[in-house]
Amino acid sequence: MARKGKKLEHGCLVKWRNRLEKARKRGGFTTHESIMAGSWRVCAVGEAHGLNPHIVKYNEILAPVDELLDILGGDFAGLVSDSHLDNYPQKRDFNKVETCLNRIEKRLEKLYTL
């Protein structure tokens, strides 16, 4: 059952989906996007925290309290960074980045209903 008075906002992931589509068109994420993906403040989980602080809670070191979001955020950062490197064997696997975004959204929905 959803929480009364609290709405789950997915607008945060729209920004990363837009970045993903642009990366697909140009063949990779930019250095700046790679750096952003590695920061809890502005990665996909970080943007979710900004819009949903009642759902995406951070601990004292500014990492997600939820263990699965912590793992997914790390996966996301790695996938975006890997697509930036020319010599990485799985570079530019945008489908994996999209799957990770989907998993983050799914976890947000689950946390919202708890």
What descriptors fit this protein?
5 helices; single chain; 114 residues
Strand content: under 5%
The largest sheet, given as strand count, sense and whether it forms a barrel, is: none
Structural class: mainly alpha
Shape: globular
Query: pLDDT average, as an integer?
Result: 84
- Strand segment count: 0
| Unreliable residue runs | none
How large is the radius of gyration?
Answer: 14 Å
Helix content: 55-70%
Number of helices: 5
Q: What is the straight-line distance between the termini?
A: 7 Å
In N-to-C order, the SSE pattern is: HHHHH
Write the layout of secondary structure elements.
Elements: H1 11-26, H2 31-37, H3 44-51, H4 67-84, H5 94-113
Helix pairs in contact: 1-3, 1-5, 2-4, 4-5
Can you describe this structure?
By secondary structure, this protein is mainly α. 61% of the residues lie in helices and 0% in strands. It contains five helices and no strands. The chain has helices at residues 11-26, 31-37, 44-51, 67-84, 94-113. Helix 1 (11-26) packs antiparallel against helix 5, helix 2 (31-37) runs antiparallel to helix 4 and helix 4 (67-84) packs antiparallel against helix 5. The longest helix has 20 residues, at 94-113.
